[in-house]
Amino acid sequence: MFKNHDLVPDYTFKEIRYELKPIKRSSGQVVEGLYSAWITLNNPTQLNSYTTLMVKETILAFRKASNARDVVAVVFTGEGNRAFCTGGNTKEYAEYYAGQPDEYRQYMRLFNDMVSGILHCDKPVISRANGMRIGGGQEIGMACDFTVASDLASFGQAGPKHGSVADGGSTDFLALFVGIENAMLSCTLCESWSSYKAYRLGLITDVLPVLKKDGKFIPNPLVVTDRYLDEMGKIVHGNFKTGEEKELAKKLMATCETDLSLLDKRINQLVESLMMTVPGCLTKTLESMRKHKLAHWDKNREGNRAWLGLNMMYEGRAGFRAFNEGTKENREVDFIKLRQLLAKGEKWGEKLIEEIMPKGK
User: Fold this and answer.
1) Residue 17 in 3-state DSSP?
2) Domain boundaries, given as residue ranges, for the chain
3) Of 52, 129, 191, 327, whose Cβ has the fewest other Cβ atoms within 10 Å?
4) In the CATH scheme, what is the homologous superfamily, with its name and number, of domain 16-210+260-311?
């Protein structure tokens, strides 16, 4: 009999789902006794943002999948078709962690353990980007070994726009994928990239259409999928459309249905390909390739955790409150007023925070 090496044997998951799915060959034949483990963030009403409990459960789920002798690969995804994950639960951040640096530092220990748990998993990990992969969602996605994305998905950071820093992995990982200057643009300006742009830059493994019009798959109408120059002479292939083009695309999308079957077919093909390798050599290859991420992650994560905890006393406290308390149209602090007040010598405190909160709720 084997020993059970799970951290909490027979744990019942509450806010995520853990499922074993039989592996199918491309012929349709089911492989007996071998599975992919699907770990699903199950908080679709809040775009699969992770609560403290979800972080704990994700740690347990990855350890469980890593230990499972009949699991070939892990598929990490989110519920529904709107979001893989949009990062930490901003309601919980704003209503509990804001203003409590020691509490947030303990939370960040859990978050760091989640990222490390993905990077230390003995099985290959596939991020199934079924929708938005933003903020901390981007970071746990990049900790995975592969990403297969819906072409409705978007990828990006949220830090400096919302009082934080992408120090949960993006400042360590992103430049390894897309180069320092593209990473700099993403982490500072927090602009979202389409799946097609993410694929072009080397951030993801593959991208599949998921919209059907009259029974046929069509590419995401919101994205420029051909190559042309804009008014500044820049190639805009993969960029999101704007203005009238964006509105026309939205009208077209309203007439379409969403079908993730091509996405899942590609993931099944990848899992089958991974199955057709020698398991010990595959695991060692994963460990060797992950060293490039771990070299940065292990060097920086504890210092970043301490800084992020302290940041909850001022900029983080303001930014997360603004997101939680603002309107759909305005969830950011007044950046200009904040800079003006600080330039005049105003001190951080409740008075300053109230002055820069979004108005109009």
Assistant:
1) strand
2) 16-210+260-311, 326-356
3) 327
4) 2-enoyl-CoA Hydratase; Chain A, domain 1 (3.90.226.10)
